[in-house]
Amino acid sequence: MKQLAKFSLRFSVLILACLLAMSSSAQPTESLSTLQARAKGFLQSGEYDNAILVLRQALIIAPEDLELSKDLVIAYSLKRDYTRARENVIVLCDRPNADPICFQLAGNVFKALEEVKECEKYYKRGLKKFPNHGPLLSEYGELLWSSKDPRAIELWEKGVEVDPGYGGNYYNAALYYFYTTDKVWSLIYGEIFMNLDGLSERGQSMRELLLKGYKEKLFADTDLKQVAEKTSNPFAKAYLLEMANHVSLTARGLDPETLTMIRARFLLGWFDGPAKQFPFKLFDVQRQWIQADLFQAYNQWLFLTPETLVKHEQWKKDNADTWNKFQQWQANRVFRVPSGQYYQTTSK
Question: What domain range is 313 assigned to?
Answer without folding.
Answer: 182-348
